[in-house]
């Protein structure tokens, strides 16, 4: 389970975030490219856009469920 304590500071603010467990596998980007992106040095993924539609929320939840190292968190604020 992702931890807000280890949230990368370059995530855009909002409920979804990526933490330091990320291994840059690109899975989340493939599922929800409107919300996740790898950093320019391919070190890790970050949230670049928080979901606004129900479809995007569902894709972010799918990305969270599919992350192989549980590096995606949802703080439940939305
Ligand atoms: S699916 Fe998880 S490990 Fe893979 S890039 Fe996304 S946050 Fe990182």
Topology:
Layout: E1 16-18, H1 27-31, E2 36-38, E3 45-47, H2 54-66, E4 72-74
Antiparallel strand pairs: 1-4, 2-3
Bound molecules: iron/sulfur cluster (SF4).
**Uncertain residue segments:** none
* Helix and strand pattern: EHEEHE
- How big is the Rg? 11 Å
Largest sheet geometry: 2 strands, antiparallel
Proportion of beta-strand residues: 15-25%
Overall outline: globular
Helix content: 10-25%
- Placed side by side, the strands forming the largest sheet appear as 1-4
Number of helical elements: 2
What name is given to the CATH topology?
Answer: Alpha-Beta Plaits
Estimate the mean pLDDT confidence.
97
Please tell me about this protein's structure:
The protein has one domain (4-74): Alpha-Beta Plaits (2-Layer Sandwich). It has a two-stranded antiparallel ribbon. It has a two-stranded antiparallel sheet with strand order 2-3. The protein has 78 residues and is α+β, with helices and mostly antiparallel strands. The two termini are 18 Å apart. It contains two helices and four strands, in the order E-H-E-E-H-E. 23% of the residues lie in helices and 15% in strands. The chain has helices at 27-31, 54-66; strands spanning 16-18, 36-38, 45-47, 72-74. Bound molecules: iron/sulfur cluster. Iron/sulfur cluster binds at residues 18, 22-28, 45, 67-69, 71-72.
């Amino acid at each position: 389970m992702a931890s807000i304590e280890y949230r990368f500071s370059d995530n855009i603010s909002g409920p979804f975030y990526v933490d330091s467990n990320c291994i840059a596998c690109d899975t989340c980007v493939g599922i929800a490219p409107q919300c996740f992106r790898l950093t320019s040095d391919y070190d890790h993924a970050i949230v670049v856009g928080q979901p606004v539609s129900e479809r995007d929320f569902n894709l972010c939840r799918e990305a969270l469920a599919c992350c192989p190292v549980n590096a995606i968190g949802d703080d439940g604020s939305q």
